[in-house]
Task: structure prediction
Amino acid sequence: MIEIPEPKDKMTNKWALASLGLELGFIIALPLVALGLAGKWLDHKIGNATPWFTLLGIILAITSTTIWLTKRLKQYIK
Result:
């Protein structure tokens, strides 16, 4: 059977979507991991029994990720 190649712009669109998915994964994961670990380190360094800085880091990560995602997705919607 002969395979018919897809049009070039359709393949480019697939790569753009894959790139967007990878980018969104990093936008979500990087701040969460970095700020969560920084908060955990700070809690350990100060000697807190409760993980206040870890929770603060996670809340900051969620907030910054939401802002970053909103700005990034607005570029794709336009």
